[in-house]
Design goal:
2 copies of one chain form a homodimer. The first copy, chain A, has 336 residues and is α/β, with parallel strands linked by helices. Chain A folds into 2 domains: 128 residues, 3-Layer(aba) Sandwich (Rossmann fold), CATH 3.40.50.720; 192 residues, Dihydrodipicolinate Reductase, domain 2 (2-Layer Sandwich). Chain A has 9 helices and 13 strands. In chain A, strands 9-8-10-13-12-11 form a 6-stranded mixed β-sheet. In chain A, strands 5-6-7 form a 3-stranded parallel β-sheet, sandwiched between helices. Chain A is globular. Chain A starts with 5 loop residues before the first helix and ends with a helix. At the A-B interface, strand 8, helix 5, strand 9, strand 10 and helix 8 of A face strand 8, helix 5, strand 9, strand 10 and helix 8 of B. Chains A, B: This is Aspartate-semialdehyde dehydrogenase.
């Protein structure tokens, strides 16, 4: 559901690449995109307009077409026997809905009522990197500042950056209609800028994106007493979110212990050698499946504190890949 | 000294704009740039090659021509009776050299031996915003992640970004010769990227830029026990550094108390109204004299903790303006 969107296309690519066991597949969308042709595993499919009956006989439905579409169609799919893996924020904080990153909390899948939520992109990459450290050293505090790509705001945002970037000398007066938030009153140029707003503001002064990182992290890590703070910033980067993370552990591991924990962590690639200028960057992480971690340093004042730089493709592990991995885990755990 | 550089030109502009009391002025440079014509206060000057004797009869010498030039010529200028205001890192951590941001520690000027150091750009804007809060609420911890503009790396870095940004579709393979550090072995594209290296790496895994922020902040604020951590990141922004700062106070002020302290702080402009999407951005701070602060939020777990977003023009308050303000303070305090 949402097959023609940026994440929908990545989902299709991941299903192919990972040889997901498929009997039948259908590609659904809104009326507007129905009729589009899609190639999948060497065969051509036509995108169909979603109706409640589209989900008859479906085992797993991957949703990535916006919160309102999920709210309308996910219950219909569940009613018809499907398990929905939903990539929107519609159900993430519902108590009966598991919010899952398979590397972190696969066991949460067991108690589902038909809907599994896929977390926010910036949350996924952070918990992938921090979970192996939490398991070994205990974790009590996270302070994260993000450096987020425009592709998280869709294809219109990418085009807006492209248009603005083409006029280097007039960046400050560039036309802006999409970012920081399409539905917001004011829009600001993103090219050659850094905009400290992603999603709308909550009443407490944090943005909804920041609150997602805070609340989702606690839910996924099953750690309500974990202190989490986030500042989310949009950058003129096309794809690849970066995060400057300060993490405070219950003990004081050595740098090599932290590196070892990440070296063997599933889905994580350690890129951390200052002597070779080796560290992750979004331009190089784009298109890759893994979460990259580098710039690891023990805090100079608190031996329990570490600083890390975490980068991943926000459309892949941050969305499409994680959804497909949830579907794989459902099969693996015989929950389908 | 360094009259033809990016900061040198901004110094000239500030001297004009602020009607600095000048009897005679001379513009100095290396042999390479000597002979360039400069307009100042409606008169034309020719840039002269610096020699030790250039400083005969000079009261105040503003230096911004790189550390090695300062090391060579600053002692010569001091020997001839000048006070040197040095914008390089050459003398900043020398015990007998005051490191000054006039809004914060003007009194440190009094015990100088002829050289006053101008701090690093990213340090200046941060201490301007935090000093009024430190005075009222006490300050014990800072964790900062920076979003830094390429103009801090000079005109070559600006041109590199410009060239790379013109080829949107080939960003990942763009030619890079300057950033992240001209003298380093490896160079990476900056357009549509975020590079977590500014300056070379120290042995402890922090970069020299990060260590500058840590050590200079303690020296300027006269607070050796203040815990400071920094992660410095270069962005595809031309001018204007941004900083995501977590500050922990000795007490728990209300949001309005923090805003009030900043509203009345010298050189600071409060830009903080989420309901109007009002917050600082580098594209809008470029060309301005002030330090802009917004996105102020009390930490959700620690009432003594606050998150702030601090933006300023790295060439103006981060360099040229602060140097000129130091010179003004020397006159005002009758130290010249």
């Amino acid at each position: 559901m949402g097959a023609t969107g940026a994440v929908g296309q990545q989902m299709k690519d991941q299903l192919e690449k990972r040889k997901f066991p498929i009997g039948n597949i259908k590609f659904l969308s809104s009326k507007r995109s129905a009729g589009t042709a899609i190639e999948f595993n060497g065969q051509s499919y036509t995108v169909e307009e979603a109706t409640p009956d589209s989900f008859d006989g479906v085992d797993i439905a991957l949703f990535s077409a916006g919160g309102s579409v999920s709210e309308k169609f996910a219950p219909e799919a569940v009613k018809r026997g499907a398990i929905v893996v939903d990539n929107t924020s519609a159900f993430r904080m519902n108590e009966e809905v598991p919010l899952v990153v398979p590397e972190v909390n696969k066991e949460a899948l067991k108690s589902n009522s038909g809907v599994i939520a896929n977390p926010n992109c910036s949350t996924i990459q952070m918990v992938c990197a921090l979970q192996p450290l939490k398991e070994r050293f205990g974790l009590n505090k996270i302070i994260v500042s993000t450096y987020q790509a425009v592709s998280g705001a869709g294809i219109d945002a990418i085009n807006e950056l492209k248009d603005q970037a083409a006029d280097f000398d007039n960046a400050a007066t560039a036309e802006a209609k999409v970012l920081p938030v399409k539905s917001a009153e004011r829009h600001f140029p993103i090219a050659f800028n850094a905009v400290p707003q992603i999603d709308q503001f909550a009443d407490n002064g944090f943005t909804l994106e920041e609150m997602k990182m805070i609340n989702e992290t606690k839910k996924i890590m099953n750690a309500q007493s974990l202190a989490v703070a986030a500042t989310c910033v949009r950058l003129p980067v096309v794809t690849g979110h970066s995060e400057s993370v300060y993490a405070e552990f219950d003990s004081a591991p050595t740098l090599e212990q932290v590196r070892d924990a990440l070296r063997t962590a599933p889905g994580v690639i350690l890129q951390d050698d200052p002597s070779k200028q080796e560290y992750p960057m979004p331009l190089m992480a784009a298109g890759k499946d893994e979460v990259f971690v580098g710039r690891i340093r023990q805090d100079l004042d608190n031996p329990n504190g570490y600083h890390l730089w975490i980068v991943s493709d926000n459309l892949i592990k941050g969305a499409a890949l994680n959804s497909v991995q949830i579907a794989e885990a459902l099969i693996e755990e015989q929950l389908i």
